[in-house]
Amino acid sequence: HLHQPTICGMPLKYVSLVTLAVQNAALSIVMHYSRVSIPPSLAYSPATAVLLNELLKGSISFVIAFLRSPVLNQHPLTRRKPTNTPFLWWSAFSDLCGEIFSPDCWKLSIPAILYVVQNSLQFVAISNLPVASFQVTYQMKILTTAAFSVVLLRKKLTSVKWFSLFFLAIGVGIVQIQNSAGKGHVGLGKSSATAVGSAHEFHVHVMSPLKGFGAVTAACFTSGLAGVYFEMVLKGSKADLWVRNVQLSLFSLIPALLPILWASPPPNSQGFLYDLFRNFGAWAWATVAIQVFGGLVTAVVIKYSDNILKGFATSLSIVLSFLASVALFDFRITPSFVIGASTVLAATWMYNQPTPSSSTLPSAASSP
Ligand code: C5P
Which positions, given as ranges, span the membrane (predicted)? Predict the structure, then answer.
């Protein structure tokens, strides 16, 4: 614990977890608002958002990997920070490119495709489900992550963990019952009517809970598989996390570009770039910014914490987005939502209880 990095005196581990919880809640609220607050004719393209996310995340990861380069930070002769001569910058750059295009980089192609599919499905889900229901149902990724860990990583789960997974499924089921029995559409209240402009522009965004539930279920599968696959690749080599992130983003560009290149231009097309950024306003940019930030924080959480604690952060975000939904989207608290969400939270807490063997592991692993 001597090497625990800190920010303003607080351990980075906990700062990144709390940041991830707030980011998760903010993303579902801003993404939901960016989709439902405007009439379908003025909607932006989710494909553009997914592509921008990968481009920005990849560029930022590249800069971080470059600045962390051993060539720049430790001169082999002096063992001191060198003066940044153009030669050093160039050798750091070529070193990094060599690492990025290493022979095993193709391994990242699988999680890259899965994450692009997941990020696209997220748009379908959030446009068709209330924010709080989306967040609760999305907790099912704990279930899929566990299943893929058992199958692919040959992990053993304790009976307490299986029991909590069973409860998690029940909790999600209860939330779904209230969701399908309830309204299929949501009339937007004061705040969104103001955002559109005048009173006559007020519109009702039709939501299809079945479509939303289908999308979120599929996203849970890609999340579990991509997460476990990424863990396998990360633990199977010594490559830097930021280099892996650049590789992930590079491979993501192919599936992210395909729907954009294949889409037939709209009848009133005004050029490729114009069509790409049609209706891409402040809320769309905010969605992309929060997504990019989330991808980077996820990387930090995986590095300084672990996937188990990451589960805590996402379940904390349920409470945050639930409270925000009540305030922003006229979300009505029903007894079945409270029972379902509490069951999910209790199951997440139970699942994250350390097992006797795993509680002894971190201290053993952290000793040099
Ligand atoms: O919570 P979950 O693991 O499903 O979230 C994955 C999200 O984080 C995806 O949007 C993915 O694009 C992003 N991610 C990332 N870099 C990683 C791992 C995940 O940007 N190394």
Answer: 136-153, 160-178, 212-230, 242-262, 282-302, 309-327
